[in-house]
C-alpha cells in the first residue's frame, strides 16, 4: 500500500534541527521492505516486545506538514493510522498480559500528528474553495437558540428534500413548542443564576488569593501581580485586613 | 457546568519542554479524573469530577512518585506563589545565592521547578541527609540541595562584572528576545543546557530510533507544489479514480 519515502518509517518525525547532522551522513530516505499483510501488522516488531523503553522522536508539526504534497500527507496518514492501531493493540495486549506498556506517550504523539495533518489538509481545501466559490466549503454551522433557550451551534446536514417538505425534520422541533415558554424561561433564569454564582465565587476566590499574596510577599512586584490578576482591584486588596497580617507564615 | 480553567495551566512550560512529551500526555498522566460524562452526546453536559489541587514538588507530574504524593485522599495546604511574570531562570545559568548559609556564593542552576518558582543550585544551599539507616547500619550521609525561590533566593550573575545583577527582557535589533543585565547592559545568554530534556542533552545529540523515526532528510524535503485542486481531487487523480457523476440537488439545513 505504501511505497514511498515514508515506507517503514513511522510518523514520528525526528527533530528537524538535526538536519545539519544528518546532512553529513549517507542518504537513506527510501526504504523498501516486503509487506507482511497479516494480522501481525497490528503488533509491534517482535524485538520490541520485552522492551521497557521504546524511545521515539516528537510528533509532526504543522509547519513540517505544510511543505508536503497531498500524496505524501495521504500516505503519512495511513502510516500514522497503522501505528496508532499498533499502539492500541500493544496497549491492550500489555494490559491483558499484566505488563507495563512502554512509552504510552507515543499514542499522544501519533494522535497529535494526525490532528496536524487534518489541520493542514483543511487549510488547503478552504483555500481552494474560497478562491473558487468564495465560501469555505466546510460543513455549515448556524448559531441557534436551542430547546433550553441556550445559544448553540447547529451543524447543518445535507438532505435531498427541502426543509418545508421534510416532515421528519420539522415535527420533533415543533413538538417541543416555542423556546420562550415558561419552563424554558425558568430554566434559563436559574441557569444564569448558577453561572453568575460560579463567576462570583471565582472572583472572590481570586480576590482572597491576592490578599494572601500581599500578606506573604509585601515587597512583591505590583505590576506582575496586576498582570497575573487583571480583574482584581489591588488597591482595595491592599487596604483590607487580610492583606495586613501580624506574622509571617513560613511559606 | 464547572470551570476547570485553573486546572489547565498548572504544569509549567519548561517542565513540558523538559519532558519532551506532548502536552496532552503530561495532562492525562497526572490528572485524576474520577468521573467524566460521555462525550459527544447532546444529553450529557461536559462535566467531570476531578481533583483540582495538586502539590507540585521535585517529583515530575508524569511519575509514579507524583501520583503517590497526590493520592486521592491526601490534601495539603495551599502554596502561595509570588507572580514572576515571564520565567527567566534556566538550567545552566550562573546565579548568586542571596539567602541562607551560602549567601553570596555563585553556582550553576542544576534544576528548575517552575510550578513552585524553584531553582536548585549545584552544591549550594545544601543540607545533610542520612539515607539507608536501619538498626544495624548507621546509614550514609549525603549532601542534598534545597530549592531556592527565584524571587528572593537567587540573582543572575552579570557576565562582565561577575556580580549579582538585576536584568530585563529586551529585544535585539534582529528581533530576538534576550535578557539584558542592568549593571553593565550586557546580554546574559541563555545557556545551551537549557534545552536539555529527558531524552537528550542537546538537540544535535538526539539519537534517532531507526525503526520508528522519520529521518530528517525525508522530513525536511519539500514536496508541496501549489495546484488548483482540493486534497480529494489531487488524491483521486493520483490514484486514477475518475468521477463524472453529477451529484443530485441537495439542501443543507
Automatic annotation (TrEMBL), chain A:
UniProt keyword Ribonucleoprotein, yes or no: yes
GO molecular function: structural constituent of ribosome
GO terms under cellular component: mitochondrial large ribosomal subunit
InterPro entries hit by this protein: MRP-L47_sf (IPR038340), Ribosomal_uL29_mit (IPR010729)
Location(s) in or outside the cell: Mitochondrion
Pfam families in the cross-refs: MRP-L47
Keyword Ribonucleoprotein among UniProt keywords: yes
Chief localization: mitochondrion
Keywords: Mitochondrion, Ribonucleoprotein, Ribosomal protein
Gene Ontology biological-process entries: mitochondrial translation
Family as reported in the entry's similarity comment: Belongs to the universal ribosomal protein uL29 family.
Protein name per its UniProtKB record: Large ribosomal subunit protein uL29m
The species this protein was found in: Chrysodeixis includens
Species lineage: Eukaryota, Metazoa, Ecdysozoa, Arthropoda, Hexapoda
Automatic annotation (TrEMBL), chain B:
GO biological process: translation
Pfam families listed in its UniProt record: KOW, ribosomal_L24
Protein family according to the UniProt entry: Belongs to the universal ribosomal protein uL24 family.
Keyword DNA damage included in the entry's annotation: no
Domain of life: Eukaryota
CDD domains, A to Z: KOW_RPL26
KOW domain residues: 88-115
Lineage start: Eukaryota, Metazoa, Ecdysozoa, Arthropoda, Hexapoda
NCBIfam families: rplX_bact
Annotated InterPro entries: KOW, Rib_uL2_dom2, Ribosomal_uL24, Ribosomal_uL24_C, Ribosomal_uL24_CS, Ribosomal_uL24_KOW, Translation_prot_SH3-like_sf
GO cellular component labels: ribonucleoprotein complex; ribosome
Keywords: Ribonucleoprotein, Ribosomal protein
GO molecular-function terms, A-Z: RNA binding; structural constituent of ribosome
Protein name per UniProt: Large ribosomal subunit protein uL24m
Amino acid at each position: 500500500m505504501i511505497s514511498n519515502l515514508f515506507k517503514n518509517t513511522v510518523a514520528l518525525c525526528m527533530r528537524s534541527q538535526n538536519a545539519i547532522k544528518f546532512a553529513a551522513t549517507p542518504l537513506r530516505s527510501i526504504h523498501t521492505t516486503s509487506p507482511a499483510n497479516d494480522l501481525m501488522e497490528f503488533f509491534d516488531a517482535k524485538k520490541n516486545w520485552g522492551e521497557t523503553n521504546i524511545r521515539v522522536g516528537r510528533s509532526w508539526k504543522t509547519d513540517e506538514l505544510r511543505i508536503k504534497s497531498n500524496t505524501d500527507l495521504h500516505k503519512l496518514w495511513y502510516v500514522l493510522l497503522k501505528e496508532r492501531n499498533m499502539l492500541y493493540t500493544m496497549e491492550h495486549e500489555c494490559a491483558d498480559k499484566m505488563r507495563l506498556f512502554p512509552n504510552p506517550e507515543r499514542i499522544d504523539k501519533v494522535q497529535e500528528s494526525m490532528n496536524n495533518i487534518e489541520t493542514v489538509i483543511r487549510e488547503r481545501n478552504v483555500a481552494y474553495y474560497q478562491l473558487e466559490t468564495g465560501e469555505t466549503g466546510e460543513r455549515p454551522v448556524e448559531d441557534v437558540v436551542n430547546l433550553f433557550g441556550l445559544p448553540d451551534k447547529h451543524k447543518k446536514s445535507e438532505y435531498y428534500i427541502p426543509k418545508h417538505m421534510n416532515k421528519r425534520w420539522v415535527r420533533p422541533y415543533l413538538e417541543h413548542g416555542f423556546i420562550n415558554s415558561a419552563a424554558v424561561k425558568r430554566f434559563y433564569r436559574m441557569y444564569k443564576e448558577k453561572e453568575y454564582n460560579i463567576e462570583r465565587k471565582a472572583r472572590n476566590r481570586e480576590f482572597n488569593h491576592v490578599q494572601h499574596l500581599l500578606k506573604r510577599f509585601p515587597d512583591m512586584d505590583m505590576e506582575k501581580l496586576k498582570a497575573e490578576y487583571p480583574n482584581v482591584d489591588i488597591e482595595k486588596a491592599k487596604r483590607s485586613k487580610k492583606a495586613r497580617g501580624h506574622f509571617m507564615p513560613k511559606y | 457546568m464547572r470551570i476547570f480553567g485553573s486546572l489547565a495551566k498548572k504544569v509549567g512550560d519548561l517542565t513540558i519542554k523538559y519532558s519532551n512529551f506532548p502536552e496532552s500526555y503530561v495532562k492525562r498522566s497526572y490528572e485524576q479524573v474520577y468521573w467524566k460524562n460521555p462525550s459527544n452526546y447532546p444529553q450529557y453536559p461536559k462535566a467531570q469530577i476531578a481533583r483540582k489541587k495538586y502539590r507540585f514538588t521535585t517529583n515530575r507530574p508524569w511519575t509514579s512518585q507524583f501520583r503517590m504524593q497526590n493520592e486521592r485522599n491526601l490534601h495539603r495546604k495551599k502554596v502561595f506563589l509570588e507572580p514572576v511574570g515571564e520565567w527567566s531562570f534556566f538550567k545552566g545559568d550562573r546565579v548568586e545565592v542571596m539567602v541562607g548559609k551560602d549567601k553570596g556564593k555563585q553556582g550553576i542552576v542544576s534544576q528548575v521547578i517552575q510550578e513552585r518558582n524553584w531553582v536548585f543550585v549545584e552544591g549550594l544551599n545544601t543540607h545533610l541527609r542520612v539515607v539507608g539507616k536501619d538498626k544495624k547500619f548507621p546509614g550514609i550521609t549525603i549532601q542534598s540541595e534545597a530549592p531556592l525561590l527565584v524571587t528572593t533566593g537567587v540573582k543572575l550573575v552579570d557576565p562582565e562584572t561577575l556580580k549579582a545583577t538585576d536584568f530585563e527582557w529586551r529585544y535585539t535589533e534582529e528581533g530576538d528576545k534576550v535578557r539584558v543585565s542592568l549593571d553593565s547592559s550586557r546580554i546574559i545568554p541563555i545557556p545551551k543546557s537549557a534545552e536539555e530534556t529527558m531524552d537528550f542533552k542537546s538537540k544535535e545529540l538526539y539519537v534517532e530510533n531507526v525503526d520508528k523515526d522519520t529521518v530528517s532528510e525525508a522530513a525536511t524535503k519539500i514536496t508541496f507544489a501549489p495546484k488548483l485542486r482540493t486534497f480529494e481531487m489531487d488524491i483521486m487523480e493520483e490514484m486514477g479514480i475518475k468521477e463524472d457523476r453529477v451529484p443530485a440537488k441537495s439542501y443543507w439545513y
